[in-house]
């Protein structure tokens, strides 16, 4: 059984309406409906709150639902899932700092201007490509 | 040299238009797979933004709450479009570097 069905089942057993649950969890009724129909997934904090509210264990809610586990991994482990993007951002920031520091030296030499412009254009393109890859 | 400059400008413009189109299509496919309303609006929104990539970053941040139900066929199409986006970026990079070198040195031959 997927998490949406488990949440609905648990809510019915607890004898609560979506409005009541929404009030307790501090979200909208529409959000509860979306979770139960699997149009969206709850974040880990909401999952813990729902587990307490319905009196069921996290184990019962999460185990066996691969999509939900993947969603939680992506949303909680931000560093791991965006490693290349973070490296590209850091590289671009370092390039900007270098260009600002060595600005006086670079502008005197047209070859350095071309080189530094090329590096910054390539760096920006790599960053943009990493962003597109996230789609 | 004028011919080379015009060619390079054409390369940059071609790269920019094709990149915008590929990003639009990628976002539309992604939005459809997540069940978002008005996927074409999100496509147009993502190619906008004051900083070039601003709309796309905002879309990527906001869409995480909605799980993706993308089929394998659509996933293959998305992979293909991402490769085409990379090619468009290469066109933009090559054209821009060429134009800068013309601006600095006047004649591409004098660089060597």
Question: Keywords for this structure?
Answer:
heterodimer; A: 135 residues; mainly alpha; 434 Repressor (Amino-terminal Domain); 2 domains; 10 helices; 79% helix; rod-shaped; B: 112 residues; 4 helices; elongated
In short:
Chain A is mostly helical and 135 residues long. Helices cover 79% and strands 0% of the residues of chain A. The model of chain B has no long low-confidence stretch (mean pLDDT 87).
List the helices and strands and how they pair.
The complex is a heterodimer of chains A (135) and B (112).
Chain A: H1 3-14, H2 18-25, H3 29-36, H4 44-54, H5 58-62, H6 66-76, H7 78-81, H8 83-101, H9 103-106, H10 110-133
Chain B: H1 2-33, H2 39-46, H3 54-62, H4 72-105
**Helix tally of chain A?**
10
The CATH homologous superfamily of the largest domain in chain A is termed lambda repressor-like DNA-binding domains
Domain module count of chain B: 1
Helix/strand structural class of chain B: mainly alpha
Contiguous runs where pLDDT drops below 50 for at least 5 residues of chain A: none
Helix content of chain B: over 70%
| CATH third-tier fold name of the largest domain in chain A | 434 Repressor (Amino-terminal Domain)
Q: How many helices of chain B?
A: 4
* Rg of chain A computed from alpha carbons, rounded to a whole number of angstroms: 24 Å
Distance between the termini of chain B: 15 Å
CATH class of the largest domain in chain A equals Mainly Alpha
Ranges of chain B with pLDDT <50 over ≥5 residues? none
Strand content of chain A: under 5%
């Amino acid at each position: 059984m997927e998490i949406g069905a488990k949440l609905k089942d648990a809510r019915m057993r607890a004898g609560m309406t979506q409005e009541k649950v929404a009030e307790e969890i501090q979200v909208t009724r529409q959000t509860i409906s979306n979770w139960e129909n699997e149009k969206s997934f709850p974040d880990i904090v909401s999952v813990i709150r729902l587990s307490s509210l319905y009196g069921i264990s996290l184990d019962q809610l999460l185990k066996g639902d691969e999509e939900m586990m993947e969603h939680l991994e992506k949303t909680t482990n931000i560093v791991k899932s965006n490693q290349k993007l973070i490296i590209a951002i850091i590289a671009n920031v370092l390039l900007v700092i270098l260009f600002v520091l060595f600005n006086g030296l670079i502008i005197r030499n047209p070859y350095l201007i071309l080189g530094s412009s090329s590096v910054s254009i390539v760096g920006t393109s790599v960053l943009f490509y990493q962003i597109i890859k996230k789609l | 040299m004028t011919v080379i400059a015009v060619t390079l400008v054409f390369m940059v413009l071609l790269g920019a238009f094709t990149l915008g189109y590929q990003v639009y299509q990628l976002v539309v496919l992604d939005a459809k797979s997540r069940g978002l309303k008005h996927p074409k609006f999100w496509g147009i929104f993502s190619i906008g933004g004051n900083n070039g990539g601003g709309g796309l970053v905002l879309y990527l941040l906001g869409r995480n709450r909605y799980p993706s139900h993308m089929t394998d066929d659509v996933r293959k199409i998305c992979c293909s479009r991402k490769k085409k986006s990379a090619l468009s970026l290469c066109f933009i990079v090559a054209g821009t570097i060429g134009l800068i070198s013309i601006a600095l040195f006047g004649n591409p031959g004098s660089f060597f």
